[in-house]
């Protein structure tokens, strides 16, 4: 029985089972691979390179989820993590929105697999379509704002002000929201404000650029 018979988390995706080795009439028979997992874990990597809006991003997920149900699950229930990736024009509209995206992606999971698909987590791993170096080279107001925000991550006075603004909020959040696995929220919750500013800067710049 090499490996485990049932995937226990999203780190153990794909078919799980063992190998049946039969000894008969003094001879070993060819080994037979048996898949006995009752729930299959999967990661739906959704490329958003051509998605311009949040609605388009959600739509891109459906064919990926459907493929997992039809080609990978082999009739089993699926526990699936959705990962949005790629340099995308939709980055600014998606950044930090994992919690808000969940109901929309749950609807897509139902469309793809009915009751046989459960969403384990949603992760937004996209990047802005326009590179920071290209924005800086523009020499315009947007470039100035980007430079200001990048410097802000190294400004003690701003970081202290952010701490003073955020800390009173933690006691007002529901426990479910407080413990949400969102990188920007985790950074603020743990007092990593320089990291928070650096993380949100590309999304802020991208969103402003799209609204111009």
Give a verbal description of the structure.
The protein is α/β, with parallel strands linked by helices and 212 residues long. The protein has 2 domains: 38-129, no CATH class; 130-212, no CATH class. It is 49% helix and 20% strand. The protein contains 9 helices and 7 strands; from the N terminus they run E-E-E-E-E-H-E-H-H-E-H-H-H-H-H-H. The protein has helices at 54-72, 91-94, 98-113, 132-138, 141-152, 156-170, 175-178, 183-189, 193-211, and strands spanning 17-20, 23-24, 27-28, 32-35, 40-47, 78-88, 117-128. The chain has a 3-stranded parallel β-sheet. A two-stranded antiparallel sheet has the order 1-4. Strands 2-3 form a two-stranded antiparallel ribbon. Helix 8 packs across helix 9 (193-211). It is elongated, with a radius of gyration of 23 Å. The protein starts with 16 loop residues before the first strand and ends with a helix. The relative contact order is 0.12. The model has no long low-confidence stretch (mean pLDDT 86).
Can you describe this structure in just a few lines?
With 212 residues, the protein is α/β, with parallel strands linked by helices.
Q: What is the total domain count?
A: 2
* Structural class category: alpha/beta
The number of helices is 9
Estimated helix fraction = 40-55%
Overall residue-averaged pLDDT value = 86
Task: Identify the strand order in the major beta sheet.
Answer: 5-6-7
Distance between the termini: 60 Å
User: What's the main sheet like?
Assistant: 3 strands, parallel
Number of strands: 7
Order of helices and strands: EEEEEHEHHEHHHHHH
Radius of gyration: 23 Å
**Low-confidence residue ranges:** none
Roughly what fraction of the amino acids lie in strands?
15-25%
Q: What gross morphology would you assign?
A: elongated
